[in-house]
Amino acid sequence: MHPKLARYLVELGRTVSGSDAEFRSRPLVNANICSISPLSHDAHGIECALIYAEAGMPVSFMAMPVMGTTAPANPMAALIVGEAEIVSGLVLLQLAYPGTPVIHSNLVTQMDPLSARCIIDVSIPVGNAAVQMAKEVWQVPSLGGIIGCSNARDIGWESGMVDGQATIVTHLDGADLSGNTGILDDAMTLYPENIILIHETLERAYELLHPFEFSEEDLAIEVTKNIGPRGHFLLERHTVKNLRQMRHSKILRQPVKGGGERDPRDVALEQYKKIADTYVPKPLPKNTLVELEKIMAAADREAEAIKS
Fold it and tell me: Which terminus of the chain has fewer CB atoms gathered within 10 Å of its CB, N or C?
């Protein structure tokens, strides 16, 4: 974003929050500023970051060193390049506006030797190391070093495999935010139904990794004794109670009349359309909407002036 337009973004956030103090205490938006590998920053990006920092808006510095082109062809060497870029930005903001909320994001990628494209979802565990750097060395929040399947052209086997793994590993490595999950086609395309499908993977990752407690009642020893060998538990109250408490996927294993199961992608798209057609967000006050229109009109005039 051009620095002259960055201030309008801040004003929009403040207007919706109701005051500068409220915006600072709970910012409605944060900025993501990408560094330029190797070891550089874009002038407009830094100028915008300083404007956001002055307003108390969180700023994420994201490095994306590409092993083989904009970084050495070695995971740890590329990690170092990215860390230098991120930390230089974080230090600059702290010098200018001490206490500015910041976010660390080092997404090490690699060059595809067959096409020279950037492989974003690398399988090398350097992303875990990036999260450790953020949390243990710099002690700032981390926008996941493990990112989702940005390279797949469409929803399918590749996207399911990579996004499924990414959601689990992001939980395991302790990242505060996941990165790029659900965005495909070199991070340029978002299929609406993929929002629902990714939600399913996140639910499964949570269930697999979330600790749970159990009591003696949960062991159901007496129920098992009463049923005995070769019996069944279908009619037990214990079964009804506990089945209702379990999460059942609304995407997978959806039956089709006459036999078979529906394609999960079709189910997800149907659910997305239903949400899009029926969800009505809480409206903003009329005076707030009027003020937002004024800010946008001023920003449009500024944008036209910049173009000319």
Answer: C
